[in-house]
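Feature request, filed as a ticket because there's no other form

It would be nice if the structure record came with a short human-readable summary line next to the tokens. Right now we just get the raw output. Example of a typical job, pasted below so the devs can see what we mean:
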Amino acid sequence: MIIGSSAQIEGYRDNVAYLLDTGNPYKHHILDAHGSIVKSKDRFPLNVGALGFDCDDAISALQAADVVSWSVRRNLASELKSGFEPLAELFDSKHREIPYAPEWMMSVAEAMRANMKP
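Raw output as currently delivered:
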């Protein structure tokens, strides 16, 4: 939702493709959510494109995404220290943090429930 919202704000109109690690334990949730979002694209225009999975051993961009994700979580929880301080440079002026709003997940849940009804 954040990527789609950011795309809308920036005027980016093309769909965004997603590539995730095959080792993700929530893969079935991701597939369900992706399908639901695609079905709801008229109600929620989030620029959602194709979804693929691959191994982070084969795709270095997935390893880099792990580093960024870990850095964001660590930065939010406390601070980057013990040699990881250079990762703070990831949060420069182009890094965008959008505060989490619980109502976003409520709207996603409602859309998924609506799409699951026969």
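Something like this underneath would help us a lot:
The first strand starts at residue 16 and ends at 21.
The radius of gyration is 16 Å.
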